[in-house]
UniProtKB/TrEMBL annotation:
It is an enzyme of class 4 (lyase). InterPro entries: Phosphoketolase, THDP-binding, Transketo_C/PFOR_II, Xul5P/Fru6P_PKetolase, Xul5P/Fru6P_PKetolase_C, Xul5P/Fru6P_PKetolase_CS, Xul5P/Fru6P_PKetolase_N, Xul5P/Fru6P_PKetolase_ThDP_BS. PROSITE patterns: PHOSPHOKETOLASE_1 (PS60002), PHOSPHOKETOLASE_2 (PS60003). It comes from Granulicella aggregans. This is Probable phosphoketolase. One of its GO terms (biological process) is carbohydrate metabolic process. Its EC number is 4.1.2.-. Keywords: Lyase, Thiamine pyrophosphate. Belongs to the XFP family. Residues 597-798 form the Xylulose 5-phosphate/Fructose 6-phosphate phosphoketolase C-terminal domain. Its cofactor is thiamine diphosphate. GO terms for molecular function: aldehyde-lyase activity. Residues 17-378 form the Xylulose 5-phosphate/Fructose 6-phosphate phosphoketolase N-terminal domain.
C-alpha cells in the first residue's frame, strides 16, 4: 500500500477542546495580542494600570498589526500540540513585518528574557520590551536576527517556504511550520516554492506544514488568493500536490475548535506518512497536508475608526489607529481596544503572565523560540573533509597541461559528500553536469520524488535519496540552501555566472543577517558559510552570446560588509581545490568562488597553490623577469581567462621586447586589493606598494567589470597608474579569443597597452605594436571565417 493510499484510509478521531482548554487557549491568545498592540503604541503604562494618556503613546507609530492576530492564533494551537505529542517544531513567519506575533510569544515563553535579561518577566521588563519595538536603538518590525526562534529575516517577501524546506531536509523528526502571508503568496519565489514538496523524502527528511494565512489584503489592495473562488483555490493546491484543509471564520470560540481539530489532524497525518515510509521503505510522494486559514485582517482589533472600516480591511495592515496622541476620541478607542484583551486577568501583580497561562507554553528546547534548530550553529558539526591535496593536478612546468577546474573540484566534492551523507548537499539549477560537477554523482545522484521512467536511468542520475538538489529556480535553491545552513548544516550552490544575479537580493538579505549576528548577537552560534560557485563564466559563452555575459555579481558582493563577504578567483585547478576546501570549512561568510568549467592551463603545483591561496595575492617569479630589480611595468590578473591572456601577453612581450622588465602579480583573494583598514583580508599600503610599486604602470587584467578594481584600490598610492582591462559590455556569438578582443582583455591589447605605458618602448617597439594590431585583425577575421580561433591561439601554452 502506498503512502497515498494510507492517506486516503486515514481515519483520525480528534477530540474537541474542553471548555477549560478553550478558556485557557483563548486567554493565552489574548495575552499575545495585547503584547502585539503594546509594542505598536506604548512607551509607558504597559499594563494599563492607570487611564491611558497621550504622553504614554510613542511619538512615531511604526509597525504592522494586520497579520499578527492570525499568527498568534496559529502559535497557540501549535503550542498545544507540541505539549500533547512532544513535537520538535520551529516556526517561520512569512507575512511582511509580522514580527510582533513571534516576539510576543517569545516573551511569554520566557526565551526573550533569557536572551535579553533586561526584558524581564515583570512590568519594568515589559515596558522595555514595548519601547524597543520599531524604536531608535531597538529592533525592527520583522523577524530580524535579534528575534530568538527566527531563521527567516522577512526583509524581502517570498522566501519563507523555501527556508522551511531547507530546514526540514535531513531533519527527520522536525516539523517546520511556515505561515505564508497572502501578499507574500503573490511573489514569484513563493509561487514556485510550493513545488518543494516534490523534493521532500518522508524517510530521511522532516515535514513542512504550510499555513496560508488569507486575511484578504496587502498594504492597500486585495490579495489574489483571497479573492479567487474557494473551489479554484482548493484545486490550485491539489494540483500542486498538497492536501488542503480550510479553517475559516471570525468567531474566536468556533475558530479555536476548528483550528484545534484541523491542526491535530494535519500533525497525525504527517506522522502516519512518515511512519509508513520509514517502516516499508515506500517513498511514493505523498500529498502533504497544508492549512488555508481565513481570518479578518487585524482580527480582534478596532472595528471602525473615523468612519472607516478597519478590521477586515486594508486599513488594519499597519497602524489601525493613527492619531491617538493628538485625537482624544481615538485615544479612547485605542484604550478600549487594548482593555478588551483584559490584561488584568492575564498578568499578575508583578506584571508576569499568570501561572496557569505560563503552563500553556512548552518547556525548554520544545518552545518554538527556544528550539536549537532556530539557532543552527548550536547543532552544527564540522564537515569531515578529505585532504584536498589528494586530488591535485600534477604540474611539472607551469602552463603546459589543461584540465577543467570544476571537474577537478567535483572529485573532491564527491568525497566530501560521501563522508557527510546527512549534513551536506549541493544545490544547482539544472547545471550540475553542465558545470562539470557531475563527478559528484558517484557519491549521490539528484533528488527526485516524482515519477521515474525507464529512460531516466540513461545518464539521468535521479534517485529518491539523492543529495544533489536541482530545480530550474535559483531563488528556490538558494532559499533551500539558506534554510539548510541556518539550521546547522553545510552545502555548496553552483550556478551560471549570468544567472547568479537572480539571487542578488537574497544574497543581500543573508549578508545582512550574518553581519548583524556576527557583530552584535553572540548568542547566535556560528553557522556554516554560504558557498557560491560561479561557473560558465562571461568569457566562455560561445553559443549563448550576449545575454549570458554579465560578471556583475561581484560588484553586488563588494557592497556588503567586509566582515561577511569573500571573493576568490582561483587561476587554475589546484588553486580551486585549495580555495574550495577553505570555504567549506569556514563559518559566518558568504564565499563567492569564480571558476570556469572549461579546460584551463594549470600553473602551480599543489604546494605552490596552497601558499599562493593562503597569501591571496603574490608575484609569480616564473612569469616575471624583473629579477629583484625595479620593474618597468606590473602586469596583474584576477580570474582564470584573464590570467591566461595576461600570461600570453607577457610571453609576447618577452619575445618581442626582451628589454622590458615585467613583474607578474596574480590575485586570488579579490579583497586583498583593499586597504587592511577597510577589509580584514586587505593589504597594508606598504605591502601593496611593494607588489605594485609607487609609480610604475600597472596593467591589470580582470575577470569582471574593470571599474570594480578601481573601487577597491582608489586610495592606493599608485592608483593613477592603474589601468584595468575587463568586461565592457560587448559581445555576441564570439569565439573565446574574439570575445576577449572586443573587450580588450586579450593578449594583444594588453601587450599594446604595455608598449603605450612604458616610455622606453613607445619609440623602440613601434613595429611590435603594429604587428600586434595585425594579429588582432587576423584573429577576428579567422574566427568569422572558420567559427573557431586559430589553433596557435586556442592551444597556447606558456613557453617551456
Amino acid at each position: 500500500m502506498s503512502s497515498l493510499a494510507i492517506q486516503d484510509d486515514l481515519e483520525v478521531e480528534v477530540p474537541a477542546l474542553t471548555q477549560e482548554e478553550l478558556r485557557k487557549m483563548d486567554a493565552y491568545w489574548r495575552a499575545c495580542n495585547y503584547l502585539c498592540a503594546g509594542m505598536l503604541y506604548l512607551k509607558e503604562n504597559p499594563l494599563l494600570r492607570e487611564p491611558l494618556k497621550a504622553e504614554q503613546i510613542k511619538n512615531r507609530l511604526l509597525g504592522h498589526w494586520g497579520s499578527d492576530p492570525g499568527q498568534t492564533f496559529t502559535w497557540v494551537h501549535l503550542n498545544r500540540l507540541i505539549k500533547k505529542y512532544d513535537l520538535n517544531m520551529i516556526y517561520i513567519s512569512g507575512p511582511g513585518h509580522g514580527a510582533p506575533a513571534t516576539l510576543s510569544n517569545c516573551y511569554l515563553e520566557g526565551v526573550y528574557s533569557e536572551v535579553y535579561p533586561d526584558k524581564s518577566q515583570d512590568e519594568a521588563g515589559m515596558l522595555k520590551f514595548f519601547k524597543q519595538f520599531s524604536f531608535p536603538g531597538g529592533i525592527g518590525s520583522h523577524c530580524t536576527p535579534e528575534t530568538p526562534g527566527s531563521i527567516h529575516e522577512g526583509g524581502e517577501l517570498g522566501y519563507s517556504l523555501v527556508h522551511g524546506f531547507g530546514a526540514a531536509f535531513d531533519n527527520p523528526d522536525l516539523i517546520v511550520n511556515v505561515v505564508v502571508g497572502d501578499g507574500e503568496a503573490e511573489t514569484g519565489p513563493l509561487a514556485t516554492s510550493w513545488h518543494s514538496n516534490k523534493f521532500l523524502n518522508p524517510i530521511r527528511d522532516g515535514a513542512v506544514l504550510p499555513i496560508l494565512h488569507l486575511n484578504g489584503y496587502k498594504i492597500a489592495n486585495p490579495t489574489i488568493l483571497a479573492r479567487i473562488p474557494a473551489n479554484e483555490l482548493e484545486m490550485l493546491f491539489k494540483g500542486l500536490g498538497w492536501k488542503p484543509y480550510v479553517v475559516e471564520g471570525d468567531d474566536p470560540a468556533v475558530m479555536h475548535q476548528k483550528m484545534a481539530e484541523t491542526m491535530e489532524r494535519c500533525v497525525l497525518e504527517i506522522r502516519a506518512i512518515q511512519e509508513h515510509a520509514r517502516t516499508t521503505g515506500d517513498t511514493t510522494r505523498p500529498y502533504w497536508p497544508m492549512i488555508i486559514l481565513r481570518t479578518p485582517k487585524g482580527w480582534t482589533g478596532p472595528k471602525e475608526v473615523d468612519g472607516h472600516k478597519v478590521e477586515g480591511s486594508w486599513r488594519a495592515h499597519q497602524i489601525p489607529i493613527l492619531d491617538p496622541k493628538t485625537n482624544p476620541e481615538n485615544l479612547a478607542k485605542l484604550e478600549a481596544w487594548m482593555r478588551s484583551y483584559k490584561p488584568e486577568e492575564l498578568f499578575d501583580e508583578s506584571g508576569a503572565l499568570i501561572e496557569e497561562l505560563r503552563e500553556m507554553a512548552p518547556k525548554g528546547q520544545r518552545r518554538l523560540t527556544g528550539n536549537p534548530h532556530a539557532n543552527g550553529g548550536l547543532l552544527r558539526k564540522p564537515l569531515v573533509l578529505p585532504d584536498f591535496r589528494d586530488y591535485a593536478v600534477e604540474v611539472k612546468k607551469p602552463g603546459q597541461i589543461e584540465v577543467s577546474p570544476t571537474a577537478t573540484l567535483a572529485l573532491f566534492l564527491r568525497d566530501v559528500m560521501k563522508a557527510n551523507m546527512t549534513n551536506f548537499r549541493v544545490f544547482g539549477p539544472d547545471e550540475t553536469a553542465s558545470n562539470k560537477l557531475d563527478g559528484i554523482y558517484a557519491a549521490s545522484p539528484k533528488t527526485w520524488m516524482e515519477e521515474l521512467i525507464a529512460q531516466d536511468a540513461d545518464g539521468g542520475f535521479l534517485a529518491r535519496d539523492g543529495r544533489v538538489m536541482e530545480m530550474l529556480s535559483e531563488t528556490t535553491l538558494e532559499g533551500w540552501f539558506e534554510g539548510y545552513v541556518l539550521t546547522g548544516r553545510h552545502g555548496l550552490f553552483s550556478t551560471y555566472e549570468a544567472f547568479v544575479h537572480i539571487i542578488d537580493s537574497m544574497f543581500n538579505q543573508h549578508a545582512k543577517w550574518l553581519e548583524k549576528s556576527k557583530a552584535e548577537l553572540r548568542w547566535r552560534a556560528p553557522i556554516s558559510s554560504i558557498n557560491i560557485l560561479i561557473s560558465s563564466v562571461v568569457w566562455r559563452q560561445d553559443h549563448n552570446g550576449f545575454t549570458h555575459e554579465d560578471p556583475g555579481f561581484l560588484d553586488v558582493v563588494t557592497n556588503k560588509s567586509p566582515e561577511v563577504t569573500r571573493i576568490y578567483l582561483p587561476p587554475d585547478a589546484n588553486c580551486g581545490l585549495s580555495v574550495g576546501a577553505h570555504c567549506l570549512a569556514s563559518t559566518e561568510y558568504i564565499n563567492v568562488i569564480v571558476s570556469d568549467k572549461q579546460p584551463h592551463l594549470s600553473y602551480l603545483t599543489m604546494d605552490e597553490a596552497v601558499e599562493h591561496c593562503t597569501k591571496g595575492i603574490g608575484i609569480w617569479d616564473w612569469a616575471s623577469n624583473d629579477d629583484g630589480e625595479e620593474p618597468d611595468v606590473v602586469i596583474a590578473s584576477a580570474g582564470d581567462v584573464a590570467t591566461a591572456e595576461a600570461l600570453a601577453a607577457v610571453s609576447l612581450l618577452r619575445e618581442h621586447c626582451p628589454e622590458v622588465k615585467i613583474r607578474f602579480v596574480n590575485v586570488v583573494d579579490l579583497f586583498k586589493l583593499m586597504p587592511d583598514t577597510k577589509h580584514p583580508h586587505g593589504l597594508s599600503d606598504r605591502d601593496f606598494d611593494s607588489l605594485f610599486t609607487c609609480d610604475k604602470p600597472v596593467i591589470f587584467n580582470f575577470h569582471a567589470y574593470p571599474w570594480l578594481i578601481h573601487k577597491l584600490t582608489y586610495r592606493r598610492t599608485n592608483h593613477a597608474n592603474l589601468h584595468v582591462h575587463g568586461y565592457k559590455e560587448r559581445g555576441n556569438i564570439n569565439t573565446p579569443l574574439e570575445l576577449a578582443i572586443v573587450n580588450s582583455v586579450d593578449r594583444f591589447h594588453l601587450a599594446i597597452d604595455v608598449i603605450d605605458r612604458v616610455k622606453k618602448l613607445q619609440a623602440t617597439a613601434a613595429h611590435t605594436k603594429e604587428w600586434l594590431k595585425g594579429q588582432i585583425v587576423e584573429a577576428v577575421n579567422y574566427a568569422h571565417e572558420n567559427g573557431i580561433d586559430k589553433k596557435e591561439f586556442r592551444e597556447w601554452k606558456w613557453p617551456a
